[in-house]
Write a structure and sequence with these properties.
- This is CBS domain-containing protein.
- This protein has twelve helices and seven strands.
- It is α+β, with helices and mostly antiparallel strands.
- Strand 6 and strand 7 form a beta hairpin.
- The relative contact order is 0.08.
Length: 318
């Protein structure tokens, strides 16, 4: 686990140095996935980010291998040599697997960086690297089934799982790039709804339920006082209060502070809004400018503009 984490953190550190912060790291037995906030701006940045992980794994392999050598030849101590040898092998295997030319593995990203350098076209390079990644994934699945037929169940199932994961990741990575490019010229201000239904902090909960939750059929409202946001209130917040206290409890008494993850500026891109909604599993984001609520943007708003752009063949602006 620590070896995989060190591998992915290396990607993250190099990414930050090149203006590509990592938003999230998902760890698996055979590696991890570092979710970038955006694509690298140059082939060089992509290459350095891709190589950082395998190089860090080789470094750990040398480190653990050195400890193994010391306690094998100089101070024989089997209780240390066995785990050190195992850790060295694990890190070598991790580096070699990730260097295989299947996008979005590190080797596939190296391949994409090289293609990008020579073609100058990130989208085309991603499409080619993604196709190679899918072929590599299907090859792993094929050899996995071959192993099953030879009664090698453990290796067979392992190869099938790895192949399926790689095939899905390769396909999804290209689709994500296409999606991101389709929203390049769209901003939150272009698609947000400006008429936001808000709640006064001084009304009672029974009024909130009858005149807001029941009327608008929405389970969450911003609480606004003199155009200043005080927080949010949801159906779940109200349900925690006994019904007999609704007529004496005001919204201000139970309002929850607004999480910064639920807020976005109208100047942000639509892709950033979609990414945040998806990552945080939100129904919408509040749009705020200069500490004032100026609108609301939902996933449906973003998908709608994507369908319109697709119907007109891409960009709407000249």
């Amino acid at each position: 686990f620590c070896s995989v984490l060190f591998h992915e953190l290396s990607h993250s550190l190099v990414g930050r140095q090149h203006g590509v912060p990592i938003q999230k790291i998902s760890l698996f037995v055979f590696g991890g996935v570092a979710q970038m906030s955006k694509e690298p701006e140059t082939p060089r940045a992509e290459l350095l980010m891709a190589l950082a992980g395998p190089l860090s794994s080789f470094f750990l392999a040398l480190f653990f291998g050195g400890i193994w050598a010391i306690f094998t030849f100089l101070v024989p101590l089997r209780i240390i040599t066995v785990p050190m040898w195992y850790l060295a092998l694990i890190n070598v295997a991790l580096a070699i697997f990730n260097l295989m030319p299947g996008f979005p593995l590190d080797g596939g990203r190296v391949f994409r960086a090289i293609l990008w350098f020579f073609t100058g076209d990130l989208k085309k390079s991603t499409r080619i690297a993604s196709s190679l990644g899918q072929v590599f994934g299907f090859a792993l699945i094929f050899f996995g089934f071959l192993s099953l037929f030879r009664d090698n169940w453990v290796n067979g199932l392992w190869l099938i799982v790895l192949g399926w994961f790689l095939q899905q990741a390769a396909s999804g990575s290209y689709e994500q790039l296409v999606l991101r490019e389709s929203l390049d010229d769209v901003y939150v201000r272009d698609i947000m709804t400006t008429q936001v239904v808000s709640v006064s902090p001084f009304i009672f909960l029974d009024e909130l339920v009858n005149d807001w939750f029941m009327r608008y059929r929405c389970g969450r409202f911003p609480v606004v006082d003199n155009e200043r946001i005080r927080g949010v209130i949801t159906i779940h917040d109200v349900k925690e209060i006994p019904r007999e206290q609704w007529s004496t409890t005001r919204v201000v008494d139970i309002v929850k502070p607004l999480d910064t993850k639920e807020v976005i500026s109208s100047r942000e891109g639509a892709w950033e809004a979609l990414r945040r909604i998806s990552m945080e599993e939100l129904s919408h984001l509040l749009v705020m400018d200069e500490q004032k609520v100026t609108g609301i943007v939902t996933k449906s708003d973003i998908l709608r503009i994507m369908r319109i752009k697709a119907a007109f063949g891409g960009r709407l602006r000249p």
